[in-house]
């Protein structure tokens, strides 16, 4: 070939077909024009060139109908698989996440559904606690959220509850040894809110600025629907809320070290209180109580290793404390008159314990109407069930999220493999 001369090529129509419909066949010359103008037939070309021409002719049989290119199909396939995989994994994990979230929310508030009642400890650093009135005790007393019950300072002689209606003056209403008071008179800006729905609970909110320097014990009662308020004293589920004293700043305590002070959350058994109740629901929990006045009061059983078995409610059957609750022990009376009962572990079944405080009169005789301290100890299985329920619910949330992530990654890898 002379310099400056070019070799002309005639291409098969397949090249246009390739451009229009995206087939994989390359543009292969069907005939070759030499510099002198001669046309060379493919048969005169080398065997390799002839083979390429044959394939090019075979590929020229393009359909008049426009088809989807194969490269485009390979791009759509992984995208479709990805969308399907995400939809399946999210829909399958949505139910476990919702169910687990429901179970977690159910464990946040204690439910009062039996005459044994519940005890709610108000957190020192918190601002609110929650509780529920469960069936059949599904009606709260007082019904007015502005009011609450506290331990009466002295016996009222007559129970006005229900005779004049719950809207009468708070100081005139007494039930089960407790007097009805305005909640905001005890804690400024405190509120009791009832959520919406049949399964909703109550939320008691007390701002930090409203906390007092001494702890208080508030009381609500969950009664049976349709029952008279007069029946609260004998047939209701009491909700005891123990609110600790306001946390003092270091160096602000002016009390004398020689003056014995009772610690917070001590049950004080007096002639006016009648009965004091406490609930033990976890291991290593302690219950502290005192008989008032300490100088003239006697605790029975006197032996520290003994306690009354109160399953029958009589508080008269004396047994070894450790036979009812393993490793439980009671201290001797301390200088401030306080007894401490320690429960390192929970029993295999629910137990009811009882102590009795009696006061010596002037003639040396014991008062017949003794004040009793009832301690309900939950079974270990009940606590572990609640713990496992919360733990299992959390685990299902994590498992469902992991399932969704793994599913998305799997489908993404499959899509990448199809593209490669």
UniProtKB/TrEMBL annotation:
Signal peptide range: none
Domain called SRS: residue spans: 115-243, 265-377
Region described as Disordered: 243-265
Acidic residues bias: start-end ranges: 251-261
GO CC entries: membrane
SUPFAM superfamilies the record matches: Major surface antigen p30, SAG1
Protein known as: Srs domain-containing protein
Native organism: Neospora caninum (strain Liverpool)
Taxonomic lineage of the native organism: Eukaryota, Sar, Alveolata, Apicomplexa, Conoidasida
